[in-house]
Predict the 3D structure of the following.
Amino acid sequence: MTNNNQKSTFIPIAIIAGLFFIFGFVTWINGALIPFMKTINELTDAQSYLVASASYISFVVMALPASYILNKIGYKKGMSLGLIIMGLGALVFIPAAEARTYWVFLTGIFIQGIGMTILQTAANPYITILGPIESGAKRIAIMGIANKTAGALGSLIFGAILLSGIDEVKAKLSTATIDEKATLLDTMADSVFVPYVVMAIVLFILGVLIRKAPLPHVEAEEGEDVTDGKTAKTSIFQFPHLWIGVLALFVYVGAEVIAGDTIIAYGISLGFTGEEAKFFTTYTLMAMVATYALGVFLIPKFIKQRTALIVSAFLGIAFSICIISTSGFTSVLFVAALGIANALVWPAIWPLTLDGLGKFTKTASALLIMAISGGAIIPPLYGRLVDANKHELVTAGLQETEAMATASTDSYWILIPCYALILFFAIKGYKIKNWINK
């Protein structure tokens, strides 16, 4: 770490934790946005989960450009730029609500995702190299606590704002005329106006303030060229464990998003009201926060990161099976329990993947950020499974409400191969340093 002033890292860590709080807040309101968008735009389940896709696909589009931008302007200015772009995305929700047009909403979410990509690409490596690498996992876990606490708060606030009265609106829509339906949906869409204007103002202010924040200049130490026997490796493609790690992170983010963003819609499909279900994402996130805190205490003093990753993967498989095997509120609780399985995966995959990459570390970090796009791909696959299973069950003679509940529950099987891949990486994949073992 390069820090000429050698000051305490407490204040910088607190500031970066504040940034993780912000993009945690913005990210996890998707749990409330999905059923909200489904109602006002009259969408299928698969279409509604494009809310997650619009946010997370930005990490594919912007990760490498963000890395280039940060090399030009530095971490601090990059964080400022990310916040301002997120504020611009929030403003797009105003014309989107006025027009009640789904693609405009998705555009706003995508723009916010671009801002979050820049912010993540700056904040993650910054916090990693802010202190000794040996304590990097602990700092990442602290960031996780800030991120998920904000997510729980955002889910509660936006759940209360956006989902209030959603059950009454749905009931009225079934008997309303075309004009009455348009009025009901327009009124519901207008509820995004005030919260997103406030969000934009806050993000713009923070974008300006971060430029003045006392953040020390840090740079990662250049590692020695990694060698394979006597020959130095010359390409990022020569590290199998990196690509397995990127794939593991890809499926992890997809699983994490499913656990947080589908749980409200899942609860509603089981018969819970929107008023009751709005709290469900909070259960998932609080499970993650508690496990992050446990990780801060245990790693690396009592358990290794690899051990934590193995346990997390096993728990993910077990909880996924329990979701499918149970019903009602018990099943919802097992979805929330996925937060326990998910919490320590991100902090463990990063150091295991970056180990031994030397001069290729920066490029590898950009690839890991791109893996966040798993949140754009896997949740819509879950939505398609729900739609397909529901259609099949209705065709077989089940009532639509019962078919929806059964289809939503059964489709959680998609999580099992995700956690199986993470388990493979934890046990074997991170050790594969060469394509051909000699």
